Amino acid sequence: MLREHYRVDLVDRWEGRTADAMVALHARRSAESIERWTQEQPRRPLAVVLTGTDLYRDIRSDASAQRSLALADRLVVLHERAVDDLPAQYRHKALACFQSTSTRMPQRKTQRHLRAVMVGHLRAEKAPRTYFAAARSLAGRPDILLDHIGAALDPALGAEALAVQQGCPRYHWLGPLPHPSARRHIQAAHVLVHTSLIEGGAHVVMEAVRSGTPVLASRIAGNVGLLGPDYQGYFEPDDAGGLAGLIERCRDDPAILGRLGAQCALRAPLFEPARERATLLALLAEMLETCP
User: Fold this and answer.
1) Using 50, 70 and 90 to split pLDDT, how confident is the model at 43?
2) Residue 268 vs residues 34, 48, 99: alpha-carbon distances, Å
3) What 8-state DSSP symbol labels residue 154?
4) What pTM was computed for the model?
5) How far is residue 28 CA from its own chain's centroid?
6) 247, 246, 206: which is closest to 225 by C-alpha?
7) CA–CA separation, 12 and 28 (whole Å)
8) Where do the DSSP E strands lie in the chain?
9) Contact at 8 Å (CB) between 21 and 288?
10) E strands within 99-187?
11) What is the per-residue pLDDT across 216-270, written as a single tens digit (0 to 9) for each?
C-alpha cells in the first residue's frame, strides 16, 4: 500500500539501516527495535501499530510495551473504539485505521440447512471452547452444520476439537487451510462465527462482511469497533448458550440473516483497500512533515 510512493523495507528486527520513518508492528514484540530506533534515529518519526494483544493485555502489564507507547510519535489502532481503550495520556497520538480486504460476490445459500463457519487458530484468545459448547448444545439439530477452520496452536484445544467432532457429527474441524480456501468457506457459509475474547480488529470479520456473509460475534471492543454498536448479531463473551440461540434463530427465522446482512453491507465500505491506503499515506505524509 505504500510502495507506489515510498521505498519500503520489511524486516523482523531493525538492525540500524538508515530510513526516514519506522512503522513498527506490535508494542511488545517490536519493543527492542523501537527502543533502538529512538536512540539512534531520535529525529526520525516512529509509528507503532497496536494489535488486540497489545491493547487488551500487553500495555496493561508489560513494561516494554508501555515504553513503546511513550516513545511512539503516532499510535495506529485497528478499530474505531480502540482510541478510547488507550491510556488517556497517549490518546492524542492515536489514529484509527481499518484494515481492508477484497470483495467477494455473495453466494446463493441452500435452504436445506444452515452452515456456520468459525475461522481462527485454536488458542485461548479466540475462545474456541465457546464454539465447542455451542456445537454440543446444537447436536440435536441435523439442519445446522458447524465448520471450524484453524490450526491447533494449543494441542489441548486440538484434542478437544477432535472429541467434539466425534460426539457431534455435524461439527467438522477442518484444520488449517490456505487463505483462498478459507475465504471460499466464508463465502459459502450462512454465517461466520467469531468468539474471540481479545481482538484488535479481526481480519476474518472484515472478510465475511466483504463477502456478504453475516457475522455472529462476541460483544468485545474489537468486534463492536468493526461492526458498530447497534449490530444485532452479538452474544456475550464465553456465552455458548447465547451463541447457540443466535445460530438457531438464524436457521428458524431466515429474516434475521437478511437484517444482519444489511447491517454488514453498511459497514463494508470501511474495509475497502483504497480507504486503508489513503489513511496510511496521510499518516506517513503527516509524520514526515511535522516530526522534527
Assistant:
1) confident
2) 34, 26, 11
3) S
4) 0.90
5) 18
6) 206
7) 13
8) 22-25, 46-49, 74-77, 94-96, 114-119, 144-149, 171-175, 191-194, 215-218, 234-235
9) yes
10) 114-119, 144-149, 171-175
11) 999 999 999 999 999 999 999 999 999 999 999 999 998 999 999 999 999 999 9
Nearest to 199 by CA among 217, 173, 187, 181: 217
CA 291 to chain centre: 30
CB < 8 Å & 24+ apart, contacts of 236-243: 237/127, 237/130, 237/195, 237/197, 238/127, 238/130, 238/197, 239/130, 240/129, 240/130, 240/131, 240/132, 240/133, 240/134, 240/137, 241/133, 241/134, 241/137, 243/130, 243/131, 243/134, 243/193, 243/195, 243/216
Alpha carbon of residue 250 to chain centroid: 23
Q: Strand runs (DSSP E) across 120-271, as ranges?
A: 144-149, 171-175, 191-194, 215-218, 234-235
Q: Which DSSP category does 219 fall into?
A: -
**Phi-psi map region of 61: left, alpha, beta (phi>0 left; psi -120 to 50 alpha):** alpha
pLDDT at 164 over 70: yes
Residue with cell 534515529: 41
| One-letter identity of residue 87 | P
